[in-house]
Amino acid sequence: MMIKTTIYSLLLGLLVACSQSRDARLLWSQSLYQIGSQSSPKTTDLNGDGVLDIVMGAGTEEIAPTDYGVVALDGKSGELLWQQDATASIVGSATFYDITGDGVNDVLIGGRNHNLMALNGTNGEFIWKYEYKFKDDSILQYARYNFYNSTLVPDQNNDGYPDLLTVNGGNWDALPGSTDDRFPGVLMLFDLQSGNILAADTMPDGQESYMSPLCFTQPGSEEATVIFGTGGETAGGNLYQTTLADLKVRKIKNATVLASEETHGFIAPPVIADITQDGYLDIIVASHASQVHAINGNTLETIWNRSFPQMECSNGFAVGQFTGDNTPDFLAIMSQGTWPDYTIATQVVLNGKDGTIAYQDSIGCFSLTSPVVYDINNDGWDEAILSIGEYDCATQLTEDVRSPATMNSQLVVLDFAHDRQQVLDKTEGFKNFYSTPWLGDLDQDNYLDVVYPQYYNANDLFRFLGMTVKRLDMGIPMKKPVLWGEYMGSDGRGVFPPLD
């Protein structure tokens, strides 16, 4: 395929005023044919060369076998290190831990058609994989659908290893707007070494679940708090708080309801951050109805909320300093319209103190990607980097018209302090609806790298027909750590600042 791509230098936009800066440059681009991804890139050093490598879920059609369910790319060259097959598209993003004790992180990742697996980080071979065999179990009979992102939690079976928390839910055969063929999601705890199920329970309200659960411990507490959500695009649901202790005895029916929606659910994972500056971690979440709730982590009372009519949201937040004070702020992406008929995407910054709108714009079309964040020009205000698709957002898709006539995929920087934006990369004929970029320092040279996938569009907007993964050296010197550089934050756990 012919790829027309343009890399732009941030220096041209005067976002950076530093003698150490250099022009942005594309270091490598790797194309993988006939596949695509709803996963986001995660990084760890798999081959011991000191450069972080890239792991992503992938696939062909959502429910179809693939030889490329999980792919690992060399961070230095972009070459394929290994791949692993799957019975359906792997839509989750990787969690890492050295299960085998060989000094290399292994990969835990999930996807559609009850795919959940632990892979050897060195060669991609199975350590274990989930097998559905529970049709007679009152709880686990429902754990036959999709796995999303997982998170490591404190050791619950005293084997010296953390355990793995995730959710299974969402029937791909259920029709939009219908209550038929919808089953309760299952919150599940797995032994990290063997893949054995340590605990599982169905959602308290009997609703399906798409939200990746979060787990954290409040300061001064020894009890692990778990946040999870229910409902979907057209089904009401709740945001809940429970504990690992209650999950272990199948009592998440005792969970506290933090927020509710009658006709929409809670799909995107929340963010955990102290916005009241009282030492407790607060919970900030956007429902699919685009109502944003900020909940006090100590009292569980609402701090503030903000509603956005005629918009819907399945995107995760980005967190940073976007208003010039010391309170974390939140960048949300919302889609105008009603699922699945969306048009343009709207980017909104909410002031963490009170939920007021500090910035709002609409660039690009519908997207499920999330931004990443860094103070690029070292002025004390964070900028955001996000992937957008430029095409006629009002295109009406039919059996004969499956894609806009023209489109391009862009990587864009938003500078909130100066209310301006700049394109970093523009690729004609490509799209990206799902994958959040990765931002950090792959090779430890103290300059920012961005890793980002794009997908060949051809003549069908929603088919997977090929993907390209790129590594861009932004030419920006790192003055401080990246705190929100990937999907669900720089440690993948949804907590700001990261736990690790």
Structure description:
The structure is a single chain. This protein is an all-beta fold. 1% of the residues lie in helices and 41% in strands. The chain has one helix at residues 244-248, and strands at residues 4-7, 25-33, 42-44, 53-57, 66-73, 80-86, 95-97, 106-111, 115-119, 126-129, 146-147, 151-153, 163-169, 186-191, 197-202, 214-217, 224-229, 237-243, 256-261, 271-273, 282-286, 291-295, 302-307, 311-312, 318-320, 329-338, 341-350, 357-361, 372-374, 383-390, 408-415, 420-428, 430-431, 438-440, 447-456, 466-477, 495-496. The strands form eight sheets. It has a five-stranded antiparallel β-sheet with strand order 1-32-31-30-29, with no helix packed on it. Strands 2, 33, 34, 35 and 36 form a five-stranded antiparallel β-sheet that branches. The mean pLDDT is 94.
Which structural class do the helices and strands define?
A: mainly beta
What is the topology, as strand order, of the major beta sheet?
Answer: 1-32-31-30-29
| Cα separation of the termini | 41 Å
Low-confidence stretches: none
Largest sheet entry: 5 strands, antiparallel
The percent range for strand residues is 35-45%
| Share of helix, binned | under 10%
- Morphology call: globular
Radius of gyration: 21 Å
Work out the helix count.
1
Mean pLDDT: 94
Number of strands: 37
